[in-house]
């Protein structure tokens, strides 16, 4: 058989040497360890950085993040879709509830000042800043069957992975199963509900560099998938890198303007604060 020999089967020592030679390799889409970033907001110290990673098109990530942590997501090239599942890190049966997020705030369109609520009526995260303005609380994510119909391939290990399968992989790293994967919010890809109830996708591609800044109000397990939106009308599978940067921050004070922006939001914050008094 011609070609490059199978180093793993033919010569374990050569395979070891080959693997070790990859040390120090850097590519755009990978975690940075230890985390380093040269564009942190003013007043954020480098030692407070806890996560720096760029998710590849079709990639995913999962992290446990402490209460008060800030997470900045950047759509680097204008065609990323950040599908988020969020769990209470102490009790993962409590998780993001998209229906309550919409219902309690009397608003289906996310943006700065909006909250992501749990199924226990608590605030999991606040949106502190948003330069994108295109998000989706209605559609969830693609799955293997929908991708197979649209792209001719839907396997998790194939060329066109689905958002649901990526969320399942991320959840599994924290001992969770496919039954724990719940309806998500999609950031950077939007939808509009028309007068007759039809859903119009707002997909782009958009200008690169749009950002969303989240503040976590609970200790959470966060899972992110970066796959095309399920209603993307384009025939091609399109996704671009998504950057995630997280740093330690203060717990939300009582005078915080987001906390006090509405009676419904304040009640959800009080529910969260009561949870941490126990």
- Termini Cα gap: 67 Å
Q: What is the rounded Rg?
A: 20 Å
- Looking at the chains present, what oligomeric state does this protein adopt? single chain
Mean pLDDT across the residues is: 93
Number of helices: 6
The tally of beta strands, per DSSP, is 13
Helix-strand pattern: HHEEEEHEEEHHEEEEEEH
The helical percent reads: 10-25%
Question: How would you describe the shape?
Answer: globular
Structural class: alpha+beta
Number of domains: 1
How much strand? 25-35%
Task: Let me know the largest β-sheet.
Answer: 6 strands, antiparallel
Give unreliable regions as ranges.
none
**Physical arrangement of strands within the biggest beta sheet:** 1-13-3-11-6-5
Can you describe what's shown?
With 278 residues, this protein is an alpha+beta fold. Helix content is 19%, strand content 25%. The strands form three sheets. Strands 1-13-3-11-6-5 form a six-stranded antiparallel sheet. A hairpin with a 5-residue loop joins strand 5 and strand 6 (123-130).
Strand and helix map with partners:
Blueprint: H1 7-10, H2 12-20, E1 49-55, E2 60-65, E3 70-75, E4 82-88, H3 98-105, E5 115-117, E6 123-130, E7 135-136, H4 144-151, H5 163-172, E8 185-187, E9 190-193, E10 199-202, E11 210-216, E12 220-226, E13 242-247, H6 263-277
Antiparallel strand pairs: 1-13, 2-12, 3-11, 3-13, 4-8, 4-12, 5-6, 6-11, 7-8, 9-10
